[in-house]
Amino acid sequence: MSDLDTPPGAAPPGATPPEVAPRQVAPPGVPPAEVAPPEVASPRLRRGWHFSLIWLIPLVALVLAVYLGWRNQAERGPEITLTFLSADGLTAGQTKVRHKAVDLGTVRSINLSRDMSHVVVRVEMRREATRVLTDRARFWVVRPRLTPGNISGLETIVSGSYIELDPGQPDSKPQRRFTGLEEPPAVRSDEPGRTFSLHAARLGSLGSGSPIFYHDVTVGEVLGYDAGAPGDPVTVHAFVRDPYAQYVHDGSFFWNASGLSVEAGANGLKLQLESIQAVLAGGIAFDTPEEERGSPAAADGAAFTLYADQGTAEASQYRERISFLIHFKGSVRGLGVGAPVELYGIQIGNVTDISLHFDRSTDTPDVPVRIEVEPERIVRSGTPPKPEEVIDTVREMVRRGLRAQLRSANLLTGQLTLALDFFPAAPPAEVSMEGQDIVLPSEPTDLENVTRALSDISQKLQRMPLDEIAQNLNNTLAAVDKIANGAELKNALESMAATMSSAQDLVRKVDAGITPALRRLPDIAAQLDSTLDRANKLVGSVNGGYGENSEFRRDLERLLSQVADTARSVRLLADFLDEHPEALIRGRTGAARER
Questions:
Q1: CA neighbours within 13 Å on the CB side: how many for 304?
Q2: Fewest C-beta in 10 Å: which of 97, 206, 306, 464?
């Protein structure tokens, strides 16, 4: 503050106060106007520099403004332009651009494009981000996302959405205009690993972010896919992280592990799945044969075939294949491409093609089925045959009864397999060539044989004169009915009944007359026994008088023996007649003769 700022009539700071003259008082009766004013001394001013603390406020504000302006200009980087389909979650002046949770810029404005098809976002970047703004940089909006295989961006529910920056590979071409990604990339540019191209006939449920498995461990992700031209296979870009990328060799095989695998075979129902994540978002699995694990790892960008399932992928390791052609005359319903070819129940190949052909020479259709047999599946002893010797080997096997036959693989689903088996009773057949394919003879299925036998039986039945047989049978039955209901049969039956009645009366009469005689037979037998005893006594006395060797004694012994036989016969006759009194009329029957 200077002396000029001192108010009028006030002494300057630090000045000696001036002398003040005493106040003049008017005498009584004298008007104040007539009293002379007192003399006032003139003030004396001293000039000097005086500092005040309040001056620090504007000085500090000025310094801060200059510093902030300089810092803003020093940290300010280039302005870039991003385009998105939607500005959902973006706010001008608030939304940040980040990389690894570090702010690299701020959204300054958000506008619609002229055709209103997208939004244009202008972002003011920091100077330290200038070196990463290249044509390899990628931008996307981080917001809450829920996908079948992943949940991300939940932290933005509280903090708000932001734009994530992936710088890409260094030393790329600078760029200031970018097209933002609508979905986050599956793999960041700074993540170590390798990318492989997988070619598949169908994509299935695979998509960006689908996991890649190695022995049930998640080792990578699907980056994306290219549909290609019509008829070309789909190319899937797969990324495998380190150190698992070293497990991929040139002999490795990949297969689609999406969803559930249900197989109903001879061992029952088998359910297989890689993981719940693969069921929801799809997935890919790979493995390497043991003999290939010592080879160098596959190079970055190497191409592989993506097989439909694990079984097909494992079969791809067999390099040697022999193509055969089989003609079937019947239905092949249930047989599909990829169906197994079995020998003695063991798979040795697959069906590769099924078509329908019409033979104009015979005017009959047939079904050519092409198969590929993998000889490496068969453990062979000795030296394997050369390619030119294969046809001779096949001819010998066909001569011994080798045939191709369709057999049921599953009664529930109706699927068929193609079996190679030996039929010694099969009619002779020859092996021929159609192009590069060896033609094998076929054998009808068991069901076809049964059907053919039933058809033959049906044809034989049709050739039989069933109408004439039925007519003759009707005539015979009519004649039998006429005889059964005729008067002759009735008269004969009546005569037979009368005869039987007469025979019964006769038997009753005979039984009444013979019964007393039969009752006396036991008494007669007893008397004969008594007579025999007396005769024995007489013989004893005669023996005492005539001697043991006399002729009289011998004659007498013969007489006694005959009498004993007669008595035994009478006893037997009495017993027989007691049991069978009808024998007096009918004679002895077969049963009686046996006695």
A1: 32
A2: 464
Strands 217-226 and 268-273: unpaired
- More confident position, 140 or 410: 140
* Domain final position from 315, 345, 371: 315
> Does residue 25 have a pLDDT over 80?
no
A 10 A CB-CB count for 398 gives 20
The residue written with tokens 């939940």 in the block is: 154
Place of tokens 């449920």: 205
| Burial group, residue 442, by CB count within 10 angstroms (0-12, 13-18, 19+) | buried
**Cβ proximity of 254 and 176 under 8 Å:** no
Mean pLDDT value of segment 439-443: 87
First to last CA, the chain: 175
Contacts of 215 (CB under 8 A, 6+ apart): 287
Examine residue 466 and state whether it is found in any structural domain, yes or no. Answer: no
Is a pLDDT exceeding 50 seen at residue 6? no
| 3-state class (DSSP) for residue 51 | coil
Of residues 193 and 270, more confidence is placed in 193
Identify whether the C-beta of residue 181 lies closer than 8 Å to the C-beta of residue 138: yes
In a domain, 186, yes or no: no
DSSP 65: H
Percent of the chain, pLDDT > 90? Answer: 11
Q: Are residues 447 and 348 in the same domain?
A: yes
In sequence order, which ranges of 276-419 are alpha helices (DSSP H)? 276-281, 310-315, 387-399
One domain, residues 421 and 441: yes
> Does 269 score more than 70 pLDDT?
no
Taking residue 574's Cβ as centre, other Cβ atoms within 10 Å add up to 19
CB 172 within 8 A of CB 136: yes
> Domains in the chain: how many in total?
4
Q: What is the enclosing helix (H) or strand (E) of 493? A: helix 487-546
Asked whether residue 303 falls in the same domain as residue 202, the answer is yes
- Give me the torsion for CA of 562, 566, 571, 572, rounded to 10°: 90
Q: Domain range for residue 295? A: 193-315
Alpha helices in 21-140 (DSSP H): 56-75
3-class SS string, 262-297: EEEECCEEEEEECCHHHHHHCCEEEECCHHHCCCCE
What one-character-per-residue DSSP string does 518-586 give?
HHHHHHHHHHHHHHHHHHHHHHHHHHHHH-TT-HHHHHHHHHHHHHHHHHHHHHHHHHHHHH-TTHHHH
Residue pLDDT, tens place only, 44-86 = 555 556 667 777 888 888 888 887 777 766 667 889 999 999 9
Distance of CA 366 to the CA centre of its chain: 32
Q: For the ranges 237-246, 506-515, 582-591, which has the lowest average pLDDT?
A: 582-591
How many Å apart are CA 240 and CA 247, to the nearest integer? Answer: 9
| Number of neighbouring beta carbons within 10 Å of residue 464 | 9
State pLDDT tens for residues 314-343: 777 777 788 889 988 888 888 888 888 888
Cβ-based neighbours of 541, under 8 Å, separated by 6 or more: none
Own/partner pairs for 311-315, CB < 8 Å, 24+ apart?
Answer: 312/255, 312/338, 313/253, 313/254, 313/255, 313/287, 314/253, 315/350, 315/374
> How much is the pTM?
0.50
